[in-house]
Amino acid sequence: MLRIAVLTSGRGTLLRYAISACYDGVVDGEVVAVATNRDCPALDVAREAAIGSVGAYPLDSYGSLAERDAAMAADLLAAGADFVLVGGYTEVLDDVFLKHFPDRAISVYPTILPAFGELDESIGPALDYGVKSLGVTIHLRAPHSLSDGPIIAQIPIPVDVDDTIESVTPYIAAVEREHLPIVMQAFAEGRVIRDGLKVRIAASKRTVA
Questions:
Q1: How many domains does the chain have?
Q2: Domain span at residue 196?
């Protein structure tokens, strides 16, 4: 069973997905902690869901990124978290945080990485470049990067030259909602295997009744 901590900075969309997937039994897990780097609506989502540990960790309240991330990791571990979902989180993570969750911190990025990585908003630049596919990349989080790290899954989404951020966002959200729980359940079942920069998901042993 995954004991999940969610890091976010916004409305808490992926947080809602994680809570629902656990509640519905799609993911064998529980969201036990939520951390943000600023005051944001996701904190209210977490409190409404009665998540046990909820807190904001603004960087300017600490002496450094490492100090802040060490404090944040300590609180998540105290809450019992053993897995981290980074969703819509606007800052990089220090090694001091990630060492507590080795190969257990995943991130969702709305392009087919490595294209258009390390951007605060990547959909617009990709569309401006005239790409024929956008998509969702689920990857292991790397230190001091928004988009680096071994890729776990990629789901392409065809786009048209007339598409806009507004027209494609619902499709990206639908892909995230469908595929994120699949990856999380693979972690819950111990089926995610890393070999250097390559990651594979072993076949599920679940049987259909």
A1: 1
A2: 2-201
Concatenate the DSSP letters of all residues of 137-161 into one string.
Answer: EEEE--TT-SS-S-EEEEEEEE--T
CATH classification of the domain holding 160: 3.40.50.170
Domain-located, residue 209: no
pLDDT (tens digit per residue) in 8-31: 999 999 999 999 999 999 999 999
Does the model's pTM come out above 0.85?
yes
Sorted by sequence, the CB contacts under 8 Å of residue 178 that are 6+ apart come out as none
The answer to whether 108 and 14 are in contact (CB under 8 A) is yes
138-155: pLDDT as tens digits: 999 999 999 999 999 999
Q: Which residues is 54 bridged to in the sheet? A: 34
